[in-house]
Design a protein that fits this description.
Helix content: 25-40%
InterPro entries: Epimerase_deHydtase (IPR001509), NAD(P)-bd_dom_sf (IPR036291), UDP_G4E (IPR005886)
Radius of gyration: 19 Å
Protein name: UDP-glucose 4-epimerase
Distance between the termini: 37 Å
Strand content: 15-25%
Number of domains: 2
Enzyme class: isomerase
GO molecular function: UDP-glucose 4-epimerase activity
Bound molecules: uridine-5'-diphosphate-4-deoxy-4-fluoro-alpha-D-galactose
Catalytic activity: UDP-alpha-D-glucose = UDP-alpha-D-galactose
Shape: globular
CATH architecture of the largest domain: 3-Layer(aba) Sandwich
Number of strands: 14
Number of helices: 10
Structural class: alpha/beta
Strand order of the largest sheet: 3-2-1-4-5-6-11
Order of helices and strands: EHEEHEHHEHEEHEEEHEEHEEHH
Length: about 325
């Protein structure tokens, strides 16, 4: 297939672009490089640097079989301080893309959604049928687009899939996580091991969890990419399927730090700080639906494997 990958210079987008290209698809990446990196676009993919909201219509005139839409603003804290950036970047831009797809009859879409649409869950693990009550603007914008995509699938026969990511981590060879402003736990902890930070802050140790620190479901980015390939193949016209993607196992912040200590051999000093606003205590996915429908099974589910791959990537970057 000839595929447009928006945000293919970013973390998840670059890994998926690499896997799609390896699987024999013709991949065109569009990215405005606001958070991505030109050298993260995989070899073999054509790269267009452009603002998607401006460029979507023109880009799709050349004809595509499908779009994988990763380009988005994705920092929870920032979304609360600068909501316009999120409604504009995640909603207005995606609506332009949907209209361009309709206009140019591109019907296949895989959309990056998020576990943040669920807010504070009532029960763990979280199935797709759980109430969607986002507690931050980021989650609200992604949920709004999940609804818009359902309308497009119903009205215009789009073959669409939303994938709700839990905590994506790890790396795929030379493609990994390198945000200019890093807020994610595993890369922050590894920065301590690399001597780029003095210590890690644990955001609260009084949560109702086994050791008092927050529980998250970490999924390897290459397993996540595999689910995208399957979602693309199995999409059906007129249907919008929504899948949670996680491993179904939760790890506390302290367990993640301990695993990083084991993998890196570094003591990684940590200190308890105040809880971060908007953090739910536990987020663990039920991915049973994805496993059944997409015949997808995470292959790198162990936390130490995920951390080892993130560590190899982080060390290679400074070598
Ligand atoms: N944490 C710390 N110290 C840090 C950074 C994080 O204790 O320096 C804690 C957080 O409080 C949280 C856990 O580590 O409990 C994971 O935090 P991340 O920032 O790595 O990830 P989040 O769970 O906050 O959010 C991620 C994505 C969101 C997505 C969400 C869905 O960044 O986009 O997963 O699960 F919505």
């Amino acid at each position: 297939m000839k595929l447009l990958v928006t945000g293919g210079a970013g973390y998840v987008g670059s890994v998926c672009a690499a896997r799609l290209s390896e699987a024999g698809h013709e991949v065109v990446v569009v990215d405005d490089l606001s958070t991505g990196h030109a050298d993260a676009v995989p070899d073999g993919c054509r790269f267009i640097e452009a603002d998607l909201a401006e460029a979507a219509d023109g880009l799709l005139t050349e004809g595509f079989d499908g779009v994988l839409h990763f380009a988005a603003k994705s920092l929870v804290g920032e979304s609360m301080e600068h909501p316009a950036k999120y409604w504009q970047g995640n909603v207005v831009t995606t609506l332009r893309l949907l209209e361009a797809m309709r206009e140019h009859r591109v019907s296949r879409l895989v959309f990056s959604s998020t576990a943040a649409v669920y807010g504070q869950p009532e029960a763990i693990p979280i199935p797709e049928s759980a109430p969607t009550r986002p507690t931050n603007t980021y989650g609200a914008t992604k949920l709004a687009m999940d609804h818009a995509i359902t309308s497009y699938a119903t009205a215009h026969g789009m073959a669409a899939t939303s994938l709700r990511y839990f905590n994506v981590a790890g790396a795929y060879g030379p493609y990994g996580e390198r945000h200019v402003v890093e807020t994610h736990l595993i890369p922050i902890v590894l920065q301590v091991a690399l001597g780029q930070r003095e210590q890690v802050q644990i955001f609260g140790d009084d949560w109702p969890t086994q050791d008092g620190t927050c529980v998250r479901d970490y999924i390897h980015v290459a397993d996540l990419a595999e689910a995208h390939l399957r979602a693309l193949d199995r999409a059906q016209p007129g249907q919008h399927r929504i899948y949670n993607l996680g491993n179904g196992t939760g790890f506390t912040v302290k367990q993640v730090i301990d695993t990083c200590r084991e993998v890196t051999g570094h003591p990684i000093p940590a200190r308890v700080a105040s809880p971060r606003e908007g953090d739910p205590a536990s987020l663990v996915a039920s991915s049973e639906y994805a496993q059944r429908q997409l015949e997808w099974q995470p292959q790198r589910a162990e936390l130490d494997t995920i951390v080892q791959h993130a560590w190899a990537f982080a060390r290679a970057r400074i070598a």
